[in-house]
Design goal:
mainly alpha; globular; 76 residues
Length: 76
């Protein structure tokens, strides 16, 4: 599998894209990302490529969300 680098014009664009991917995982696996990450961290879900990517996307989502929250607070 080749790594793919995607560049976004803003953190908001990145957050929207990651949110869409999370939604696809959730629909495909019939599980919320929060439930998934809890089970994954406890070792209840295998380290298959799909789940590693989901975990990475969820971590990216949390980082972007925190970054945008900080920007909004600073602007207020």
């Amino acid at each position: 599998m080749r790594k793919q680098r995607i560049t976004y014009t803003s953190p908001l664009d990145a957050l929207v894209a990651v949110s869409k991917r999370l939604s696809l995982y959730e629909n495909q696996q019939q599980m919320d990302s929060e439930v998934f990450i809890d089970r994954y961290r406890k070792g209840l879900i295998p380290d298959d490529t799909l789940f590693v990517e989901w975990s990475n996307d969820y971590q990216h989502y949390l980082t972007l969300h925190q970054q945008l929250t900080g920007l909004l607070r600073a602007a207020a």
